[in-house]
Amino acid sequence: MKRHLAAALLLSASLGITTPAFAGLSLEEHEARAQTMTVREAYAAYEEWVKKESRYYAEPYAHRVYSLLKEAAAQDERHAKNLAQASLNYGRLLLSVNKRDQAEEILEEALVLFQSQYGNDAPEVIDPLMDLGHAETKFLSGTTGGKYYRRAIEIAEKLEGEDSALVGQLYYEMAEQQLVMGAGKRNLAVGNLKKAYKIFQATLGENHGRTALASYRLGELKKLDKRYDAAAEFLEAAVRVYDSGAPNERLTQRMHTLLVETYEKMGESDLATKHCQAVGRIKEANRDPVETGESYEPLFLAQPKYPVSAQRRGLEGTVVLELTVTKDGRTSDFRVMERYGPDDFVKASIEAARKFRYSARHENGQPVDTAGVKYRFVYSLR
Questions:
Q1: Where is the TonB C-terminal domain (predicted)?
Q2: Residues 211, 73: one domain?
Q3: What residues contact residue 297 under an 8 Å CB cut-off, 6+ apart?
Q4: For the chain, which has fewer Cβ within 10 Å, the N-terminal or C-terminal residue?
């Protein structure tokens, strides 16, 4: 979010950062190197490893920045704002690497510093409050960061209004954290996600990326609950926006894949076709490796019915089918390549394979048939 970025840029700009380049060190070597660095050097290294998503390597540099600025702030109050941001950066890293006690201690310190520097109800205070809420949700079973989240929401509502995009974003972040980490709090998370979605709809409109992202997450959850009609509605709303603004993104591909599965579960196979083709188009646009043989995996699988006669006799086996994936993402031209077990396994395999849906391979922007695709069926009673 922009509020995160703005605070980080404050520290970066005030220190006059240039980026270092070093790699191939062990964690112990990074820790030793960090101890020799100035604030500027350590912050540059921290930024580098955060960009590379190497949290464990970033941690010693974040700690070094925090430690040096803490010493500096004790001597000169002018360093206090940078110390506040350094504390938040360090606390977040500790949270991400599951160092609970340290993370909570440093984040509490960050909150106090932000309040003293900006005021108790300043927008800058929202970040440490949200991170403390995330920490409580992550580490304390059965809790959901309530007191911190509530206060962050209250500040945002005072600043920008109850139905502002900022409030919607906070509800969205709460929901995401509760879904991932909040044991037994799924209903609460879904409620917060719905609040975020409604606020985004009202303030940003149906075609905004945040609205679409919330719609996607709701569709994903509805699908998990086997509420396929509602899932399709949310996912279609999301994919319309992403097809327009980010047509080749992996998240767009994921939305189309979920819609294939959803429509097949609804018995609406024809509605799945355009999404099979969309996945194939995205793969071609991203120059994904051409899938052949058994590497060409279905988007939707139908499980074969275990033949009753084979089951009664305790028979197990394997069938490898070769088939053609059509330009609609359907299957045809079945051929038995391998078989171990009775003929009933072949019949069951073909019946299941007829229901498979694949991404439709594209050439020069157009869907084409793909022959020679293989799928292995394993029949086991264990």
A1: 291-382
A2: yes
A3: 291, 358
A4: C
